[in-house]
Amino acid sequence: MSALLELDGVSRSFGGVKAVNDVSFTLKEGEIVALIGPNGAGKTTLVNLITGVHTPEAGKVLFQGENVTRQKPFQAARRGLARTFQIVQPFPRMTVLENVAASALFAGSHDGMGDAYDNARRELEFVGLAHVADTPAASLTLPNRKRLELAKSLAMQPKVLLLDEVNAGLNATEIDGALDLIRRIAARGVSILIIEHLMKVVLSVSQRVLVLHHGQLIAEGPPQEMVRDRQVIEAYLGPKFAERFQMEGAHV
Ligand SMILES: Nc1ncnc2c1ncn2[C@@H]1O[C@H](COP(=O)(O)OP(=O)(O)OP(=O)(O)O)[C@@H](O)[C@H]1O
């Protein structure tokens, strides 16, 4: 598998806070990689650096071998680097269908309005929202708003999809549905970087895990190893709790 996305020593500070500090990793074609870390670790900032919302102060972002470090968000979308947002904010008065078509047009991935709408219908069918296509986005439940967020990013015909906590706030059944959808997206050949707090999700969909703490990548490896890694447990629980946790032989 060749590297589709590559970060090389990427850093970004806000005031005195090093939100992302010298981060390097690759995402290969067809991979699902989880990005985990405690609150404030820098996960969303990293997605913003990859998609041109923020510009790195140091380091490079390469997409398909091309240096895209200084790209704008619309250019990222056009290249096939799509993302979802942690706080989903569809245009509330537009219909579900119009929201998805607008994303397709933003990414320039379609040949005119008719084509964008046809594709939007297909993506709504794919995520299971065809039955609410003509209702205003504001009327959707939270799980459906999350599905709309996925449909919007799929309408950009992405090669890489960056998912920012798409399962937050969902119940167990809804999470199972979301996991099924994530697997079906990967089966379309889309590489996925998923920011996730739920270990069940990390363990069941990712092939590799990156652990971010205070802006730095502190560990990287297979999911089963990462959830038992001393450094990772300490980052989440603090050294005292981590010691007790491991002494008691707890299983994550
Ligand atoms: N635009 C900004 N201006 C100032 N500080 C910022 C900005 N964006 C992020 N930060 C700071 O950078 C650090 C990393 O934040 P970030 O949101 O990337 O973390 P996160 O890992 O995504 O957290 P969470 O899991 O809570 O979403 C935090 O200290 C945050 O307050």
UniProtKB/TrEMBL annotation:
It holds the Pfam family BCA_ABC_TP_C. One of its GO terms (molecular function) is L-phenylalanine transmembrane transporter activity. CDD domains: ABC_Mj1267_LivG_branched (cd03219). InterPro entries: AAA+_ATPase, ABC_AA/LPS_Transport, ABC_transporter-like_ATP-bd, BCA_ABC_TP_C, P-loop_NTPase. The keyword Repressor does not apply. Residues 5-239 form the ABC transporter domain. GO terms for biological process: D-alanine transmembrane transport; L-alanine transport; L-isoleucine import across plasma membrane; L-valine import across plasma membrane. SMART domains: AAA. Keywords: ATP-binding, Nucleotide-binding, Plasmid, Transport. GO terms for cellular component: plasma membrane. Gene3D superfamilies: P-loop containing nucleotide triphosphate hydrolases. This is ABC transporter ATP-binding protein. It comes from Pacificitalea manganoxidans. The lineage of its organism: Bacteria, Pseudomonadati, Pseudomonadota, Alphaproteobacteria, Rhodobacterales.
